[in-house]
Amino acid sequence: MPRISLSWVVVLGLLCAIGPLCTDFYLPALPEITDQLNATGTQTQLSLTAALIGLGLGQLFFGPLSDRIGRRKPLAISLLLFIFSSAMCAVTYDIHMLIVWRFLQGFAGAGGSVLSRSIARDRYQGTQLTQFFALLMTVNGIAPVLSPVLGGYIITAFDWRILFWTMAGIGAVLLLLSLVVLHETLPPKSANAAQQTKGTPVLKNRRFMRYCLIQAFMMAGLFSYIGSSSFVIQSEYGMSAMQFSLLFGLNGIGLIIAALIFSRLARRVPAETLLRRGLLLAVFCALVTLLLAWQQHAVLALVGLFFTVSFMSGISTVSGAEAMNAVDSAQSGTASALMGTLMFVCGGIAAPLAGLGGETMLKMSLAMAISYALALFFGLLKPRDAQ
Question: How confident is the model at residue 171 (pLDDT cuts 50, 70, 90)?
Fold first, then answer.
């Protein structure tokens, strides 16, 4: 088995970060886009929703395709499409066309997310795959921290269209890096075998689906936080936009640290034990945060929120690696697509539910606690081999 390559970690981590780049990078520009395109706030928000739908559906396209024709061709196609759609977003003067191009941009960006996991599964397995996933989470975790900050700076200094030209430029750099650094990881015989009914179908692989559902409900908890935190921190707690950005960044650093800690522990602690103990601690932190929010201890609730959010990446590192370990390499594209789509579906449902009737710390904490509890439920089920 090959040693973990730093260049592969960086390139695959950046490819995996295309999703956060599509959603977070242009958030500071929403008011300006609304004004310049003579749109309503709802229409502008639809451009974000369209990108999220594209990110979910694109994984179902590029994942199975990569199991049939290999990883590099779908990756190159997705990046070329990402560059084109980003450029079209930059030159459009109609809000309806912006929504269309944003959907296509999200659809194309999904290729990087789904194929980075597939390529990792092709090269690594077992503990080494867990360590590689942790490093991917580290690189990927930097994106949501830096994206709004960089986007805000660009908006201050330039026009909002520069954001999309910047995305197109990033896509071109990633295309060049992927062509230079990455090679085909799906062997020719595996590509042919993927067309045959070899092994257990992914949807019938109970072991894979268990880890996949754990991953999805942990992501639902994270989306509850992402969707409500801006309103909670600024409206309920009266902090400024800059203070919120710093707090958001601090929690992002917590995600990175937790992924690295769980990666270290995976070398000495069995994955199943580490996963269950991590889930128990995550639910405990979520319940403590909920209690503190109910008693209106703002500072302590924010401290509890830091640990509640941080556990998500550690658990996702283990559950994501174990999910990919549970399938054959020839099925990893389809498996990665299914896992990614479930994560976006659960996250997309949880985010608006967490803010029903107005966003508060209590409602956000409750949504995270329920999501984590559902993940714990599947975590406590007895692991079963694929049947």
Answer: very high
